[in-house]
């Protein structure tokens, strides 16, 4: 049985989400025990929203779900690396492939890449 240390960080563990084919880091989320169990049982990346204080399945609104391909656990049992197939091509709610679409350069930020979808259309804002 897999036992993660949820106590160390107040009931949550960081989950680094990575494209299983390219290795690109797509996002960072947090899982509580319920999200962890849901991820294992459904094969879809599931997280705990710290702002909304509830579980959410990545892509439940946008359709851009993350199918789990592999999970790795760090040496302290308090962080997970989830390798996924990103359905729909975008992990970020801004429409970008990765949440890490801004690069620090010369003391400022440069946007890299272009959005895959329009968030206003997808999220009906």
Distance between the ends: 43 Å
- The shape is globular
The proportion of strand residues reads 35-45%
- CATH fold call of one domain: Ubiquitin-like (UB roll)
Per CATH, the class of one domain reads Alpha Beta
Low-pLDDT stretches are: none
What is the averaged pLDDT score?
95
Helical stretch tally: 2
What's the architecture of one domain, going by CATH? Roll
- SSE string, helices as H and strands as E: EEHEEEEEEH
Overall structural class, as computed from helix and strand content, comes to mainly beta
CA radius of gyration is 15 Å
Helix content: 10-25%
User: What is the CATH superfamily classification of one domain?
Assistant: Phosphoribosyl-AMP cyclohydrolase
Number of strands: 8
Largest beta sheet: what is the strand line-up? 2-1-6-5
Description of the molecule:
By secondary structure, this protein is mostly beta strands. The chain has a domain at 13-93: Ubiquitin-like (UB roll) (Roll), CATH 3.10.20.810. The chain is built from two helices and eight strands, in the order E-E-H-E-E-E-E-E-E-H. The strands form three sheets. Strands 2-1-6-5 form a four-stranded mixed sheet. A two-stranded antiparallel ribbon has the order 3-4. A two-stranded antiparallel ribbon has the order 7-8. The longest helix has 10 residues, at 33-42. The chain is globular. The mean pLDDT is 95.
